[in-house]
Write a structure and sequence with these properties.
By secondary structure, this protein is α/β, with parallel strands linked by helices. The chain has 2 domains: 311 residues, TIM Barrel (Alpha-Beta Barrel); 96 residues, Immunoglobulin-like. The chain has 10 helices and 23 strands. The strands form 6 sheets. The protein has an 8-stranded parallel β-sheet with strand order 9-8-7-4-3-12-11-10. A 6-stranded antiparallel β-sheet has the order 13-15-16-23-19-20. β11, α9 and β12 form a beta-alpha-beta unit.
């Protein structure tokens, strides 16, 4: 009888814990819409560069990130897992800037590539073997803050992964709350925290992540975006969860036949960009490890995502086990700076994917198109599916509103203008021919309105 009563008590307590956790998630989610009134913004640590204040999803342009100054952030991310433990953080930041990246993805907890690096990033008291979740490793947190400030001063943001090695379950949420509070208190004030990323490539503890994600949304007075990540998939992780501020995907793949430019990379970019929030591929395929070794094909991957409105990541050996070798550059890195420079030169935040503006009948080519809704600016990225491919002069067609347009054809690898032209559109009901010059591998086409005219509509069928 005593054993039966004890078992009943244990079951009752377990059930009450499940109910309490579920009610907590529900209450937190219900409060998300009123977080501004309940949790006023605090003054953040600002920098005299792009990170003057935290970036959040823009109300005006929901696919973009906007700060308090009304500036929009174009993100090129680079992996730097062990930045908080690396030998020379200043050298890592300088190396990052040579890639054109303005965000690094860093873990606050974890043992990234422990065999090679022997780093254990441990935020709590005790040890990984005997943890004390009620206290914190103060020297480590001091170093973390110092390195976040160092990055901010260099114009580099932090995609902060809260759990890299540890994989807490839902029942452990209460024990982890102190960690969340401490992270918000110590690190939330820095404007260059791009996002709180709950987990790296883990979805087996979805219940735990729902609680953690809702908690950061409700309790961060600086309102940094909250995200998480799955392993390689073909679509965004949990895009309809209220606490997921960005649509996040991983493509740790290379240029194998099953991972082609059109059916794999372009399709995934389009999938990720369809959810009405900023789209972010925050881990792409590495050289060697993921067999992403063709620098030309890798350049094409980046441009396909970028010109589908999706922020991208350069993931490489020097951001992982090779973080202390800042002389290493993976083949193809030189194409990153031109890509970033181009998008920072145009109003990318106003642009959306477009599937009717440009038509090109060529099975060996892939095209990614973005345009402003009124079509005063359209950008087409056109690439051969294979590397080292010479493409002859072709005829394409453009469907665009009435007016005169200036066209520039550029080499994506260098931004060199290879040809300029002008054409006149007779309206949306017509496809206007556009002659493309011959090119090697890929071509960027920029169409800018020179004259504004009343838009003629397409006649309906009768």
């Amino acid at each position: 009888m005593i054993l039966q009563n004890k078992a009943s008590t244990t079951i009752l307590k377990s059930g009450m814990l499940e109910i309490s956790l579920s009610l907590f998630v529900l209450a937190s989610c219900l409060c998300l819409s009123c977080r501004s009134s309940r949790q006023p913004e605090k003054q953040s640590v600002a920098y005299d560069n792009a990170w003057a204040s935290p970036y959040r999803t823009s109300v005006r342009y929901p696919h973009a990130l906007e700060n308090d100054q009304g500036n929009f952030l174009y993100v090129l991310n680079k992996t730097a897992w062990a930045y908080f433990a690396c030998a020379d953080p200043a050298a890592v930041l300088a190396h990052t800037k040579k890639h054109g990246a303005n965000v690094i993805r860093v873990c606050l907890e974890g043992t990234p590539y422990f065999k090679e690096l022997n780093y254990d990033l441990w935020p709590w008291g005790g040890t990984r073997a005997q943890p004390d979740y009620a206290s914190f490793n103060e020297p480590y947190w001091n170093r973390v803050e110092e390195r976040i400030r160092l990055a901010g001063a260099q114009g580099i943001g932090i995609d902060l992964v809260l759990y890299f090695t540890l994989k807490p379950e839902k029942a452990e949420s209460a024990a982890q709350k102190k960690y969340w509070d401490y992270a918000i208190e110590r690190l939330g004030k820095y404007s260059n925290i791009l996002a709180w990323e709950i987990m790296n490539e883990e979805i087996g503890n979805e219940g735990f992540q729902d609680i953690a994600g809702a908690y950061f949304k409700q309790n961060d007075p600086y309102h940094h975006p909250v995200i998480s990540s799955d392993g390689t998939t073909e679509d965004a992780l949990w895009p309809h969860k209220s606490w997921m501020d960005l649509a996040v995907v991983h493509t740790c793949t290379g240029n194998q036949p099953q991972y082609d430019l059109a059916d794999w990379y372009l399709s995934i970019a389009r999938n990720t960009g369809q959810y009405g929030k900023p789209a972010f591929n925050n881990e792409s395929g590495r050289e060697m490890r993921h067999k992403n070794d063709d620098p030309i094909f890798r350049r094409k991957q980046g441009w396909v995502f970028a010109n589908s409105g999706c922020f991208w990541t350069w993931h490489s050996w020097d951001g992982c086990e090779g973080i202390n070798d800042t002389t290493y550059f993976a083949a193809g890195y030189e194409s990153l700076v031109p890509m970033v420079n181009y998008y920072q030169s145009i109003p990318f935040w106003k642009m959306e994917q477009n599937f009717t503006l440009f038509k090109l009948d060529a099975d060996n080519l892939v095209s990614a198109v973005m345009a402003t809704p009124d079509r005063d600016l359209a950008v087409i990225y056109c690439a051969a599916k294979q590397s080292q491919q010479r493409v002859p002069a072709l005829k394409a067609a453009v469907r665009i509103k009435n007016g005169t347009y200036a066209v520039r054809f550029l080499e994506p690898a260098t931004l060199k203008v290879v040809q300029a032209a002008e054409f006149r559109s007779k309206g949306l009901q017509n496809l206007t021919e556009l002659a493309l010059p011959p090119f090697q591998d890929d071509l960027l086409i920029e169409i800018t309105a020179e004259t504004a005219e009343k838009k003629s509509l397409i006649e309906g069928t009768r």
